[in-house]
Amino acid sequence: MENQTNEAAARYALRPSLNHLSERELETLRTWNSSDYVLPELTEEEEFAVREVAIRLALAKARQDKGQAEYNAAYAKKVNQGPVFPTLDKYKFREAVMTIGQARSTDRSWPDPFSIDEENKGVVNTLCMYFTGDMDFLKLRPDFSFSKGLLLIGPIGCGKTELMKICNENPKLSFAQHDCQDIVDEYTTKEIGEDVFDKYCSSPINKSNDKYFGQSHLGRFFDDLGSESLGNHMGNIRNVMGEIIRIRHKELPRHFTHFTSNLDMDALKSFYGERAADRLKEMCNVIEYPSTAKSRRR
Fold first, then answer.
1. What CATH number corresponds to the domain at position 274?
2. E strands in the chain
3. Does 129 map to a domain?
4. Looking at the whole model, is its pTM more than 0.85?
5. What 3 state SS string does 140-162 have?
6. pLDDT (tens digit per residue) in 164-213
């Protein structure tokens, strides 16, 4: 028995001692996971260090929150309001035409820079009134109307096509551009044929909120009317543009359609027939360059 007691004492002596721990440390070990544990006080140095870190973190978080709030507000305004396009009167639009024209002439290396001069200023001013809805447009001629499109008539090379291209994005009704001969060529192909009339007698949909002044639908501008050939689709010969004029005159708002032509109204009547020429007059405000207008091509 005595041997057993001595052995137990010997084994107890081999156990680790906790005498190196303070009373606080022992109390911490005992109560850490219980409700009896009491949080220690911080020294002044420790409290100061914690406050410094906490302030920096709080400031960084506040800046992050403010930035997020600014982004949320800007995004909500963008979504709810959408793009805001400039308000253009005929004078500001004329300035835009000049700026775009000069940039275009530089980009495309035109022999002469774009300019507004005696030969084209009357046409330019008329277009600027039309495309901004300026009421002075209606005073120019008794038959002028904003419910009609445009027919620009002038000599070869006087700048009709380029001027319309410059004006294609406008506050009143922007438009897509098409070459009349290209349309006839499409008609002659086996793949398109008669479908060309559905294609060009509808109005393109504007799929971009950031272009064309937010207009949902676009008009169509047919360039070089009267210079195209007849179309032959598998033996079916048709005056393609004459048919497009007929359909658009009948089915679409007339201000959705614009043309340019080197032919005057008498020549257009001979080319398309009297009925088509009458439709053109009903569809379009006819604007003519002076007969003295020279070619701007070199």
1. 3.40.50.300
2. 149-153, 175-179, 219-223, 231-233, 236-238, 257-261, 284-288
3. yes
4. no
5. CCCCCCCCCEEEEECCCCCCHHH
6. 999 999 999 999 999 999 999 999 998 999 999 999 999 999 998 889 99
